[in-house]
Amino acid sequence: QVQLVESGGGSVHPGGSLRLSCAASGFPFSRYVMSWFRRAPGRERVLVANVIPSNTTTYLLDSVKGRFTAFRDNDKNTLYLQMNSLKPEDTAVYYCTNWPRTEYWGQGTQVIVSS
User: Fold this and answer.
1) Residues 6+ apart with CB under 8 A from 40
2) pLDDT of residue 72
3) pLDDT (mean) for 24-38
4) Residue 84 contacts by C-beta under 8 Å, 6 or more apart in sequence?
């Protein structure tokens, strides 16, 4: 059974940091491109980052470049999103999924950036 479990979200002040994790099981994680998406309140889901099996980030949303880093640990079947210098516009539910088919989704983890 495929499972993706995101964690690490929370409420932070602008300028703060969070590290999100996505623990995967039930499929050969190390062979899949993995992605982070986010959905802000009242908006469509947006692709944030893609990380290929070799741990290279092949896509990063323009508005997070220089602040977010996506990476993975294939030994731990885990995808990460390090988020620094957070802004209120980063407030969203963050999800991980496989790319490009996006067959598998986690439940998401809420990030709130507010003063």
Assistant:
1) 46, 89, 91, 92
2) 98
3) 97
4) 17, 67, 68, 69
Amino acid making up residue 1? Q
Q: Which residues contact 69 (CB under 8 A, 6 or more apart)?
A: 57, 81, 82, 84
Give the span between the Cα atoms of 107 and 114, in whole angstroms.
22
Amino acid making up residue 110: Q
Q: How far apart are CA 73 and CA 85, in angstroms?
A: 23
- Using DSSP, state whether 10 is helix, strand or coil: strand
The pLDDT assigned to 5 comes to 98
How many C-beta atoms lie closer than 10 Å to residue 44's C-beta? 7
60 contact partners, CB below 8 Å, separation of at least 6 = 48, 49, 68, 70
User: DSSP string covering 11-24, please?
Assistant: EE-TT--EEEEEEE
Contact 38, 27 (CB under 8 A): no
Which residue in this structure is represented by tokens 């994790």?
A: 21
